[in-house]
Description:
The chain folds into 2 domains: 6-40 and 282-389, Aspartate Aminotransferase, domain 1 (Alpha-Beta Complex); 46-277, Aspartate Aminotransferase, domain 2, CATH 3.40.640.10. The chain has 13 helices and 12 strands. It has helices at 15-26, 42-53, 66-78, 95-107, 122-130, 149-155, 178-190, 248-262, 267-277, 282-305, 335-346, 360-363, 375-389; strands at 29-30, 90-94, 113-118, 134-139, 160-166, 194-198, 224-229, 241-245, 317-321, 348-349, 351-352, 366-370. It has a 7-stranded mixed sheet with strand order 2-8-7-6-5-3-4, with helices on both faces. The chain has a 3-stranded antiparallel sheet with strand order 9-12-11. It is globular and about 60 Å long. It binds pyridoxal-5'-phosphate. Residues 34, 95-97, 121, 166, 170, 198, 200, 229, 231, 237, 242 line the site of pyridoxal-5'-phosphate.
Amino acid sequence: MKDLSNRTGLLSQSDIRAISILIREHGGINLGQGICDMPTPDPIKEAAKAAIDGDRSIYSHFAGIENLREQIAMKARDFNRLPVSNTGEIMVSAGSTGAFMCAMLTLLDKGDEVILFEPFYGYHRNMLDLLGIETRFVTTSAPDWEIDFAVLESAITDRTKAILVNTPGNPHGKVWTRAELEQLRDLAVGRDLFVLTDEIYEHMLYDGRQHVSFGSIDGAWERTITISGFSKTFNMTGWRLGYAVGPEHLMAPMGLINDLVYICAPTPLQHGVVAGLQMDSDYYVSMLADYEAKRDMMCDALGQAGLRANRPQGAYYVLADYTALRQRFDGFGDDQEAAHSLVKLAGIGAVAGRSFFRDPADGAGFLRFCYAKKFPELEQACSQLVDAFA
Length: 390
Ligand SMILES: Cc1ncc(COP(=O)(O)O)c(C=O)c1O
């Protein structure tokens, strides 16, 4: 038999899935995979059920049903402060991941370079690799993960075409400030670069922080694709609905790619999220209060257990330094060993830090914990951690 494509050789089973399998075999609570187990809001479920019962099941417009694009346009103007003027600037896709893939296929050719900040979200890096895009990494460091603009500038070459920003960020919860985004705008305009922003955690910012979309900064809109979705905000990771917002000169060609790769996002489910976007602000206020309480519970437990991390500014993960455990316990030589020991000693799944760095050695001192869990399960997980290590 002939060989498979070279690109399949770039992919392997992720550490995240490996820990999920171990947790299933061993028993315990999985704080590894970023899957929120809270229910999808009832109005969304009811509207989707009505669309299914009403046989609204055929292909939709390739960029999404008009009603949903209108709702997203409104949200993008009111919440993100993006200068959206019509629904041609909105493209609904198969999750934000689908929108991200379409954005890359629209902007980038093999051999182009993209700047990626590390620690990074693994899918960003792997999708760039899959398409043969060169990634230039800009490293940020614990505990604050601040951007060093001198390092960023020196990473830009003649082949650099885009910068990828994820705010609030997975895996560390870093939230870009307006001042940082303005500095980024100066650089992007000065060096004529596109900016791709992944803002899927835009409703999860803590301690009174406000989300700032890069595309809302003066002078940024024309060169920016803003990507978000419903997986995290409405607890519906399996529905596969996300979207991109940007100027029509970028969205029109991106729509052609979306049409080719996905045809459209699932039609009846698109009708469901229209109802989600019409829910009032109480929904977001109470979701945020719950996540903030969960963040504090998680960080307190990690601290008592002897792990170190600043409280995340946003999203729902903590990237914690576990290395102090080495002095008191065997089995914490590196991040993979530590992730296994955590399952065995505390019945807790966490992700090995190397998943978020180009060089595994840079992630060897970290474990990532996801606190998007129902309160009783998170409380149980926290007491298991404290009982095992405090
Ligand atoms: C930063 C980031 N972007 C995108 C996604 C995936 O989003 P979607 O379900 O909309 O494809 C995730 C999921 O963990 C994520 O952490």
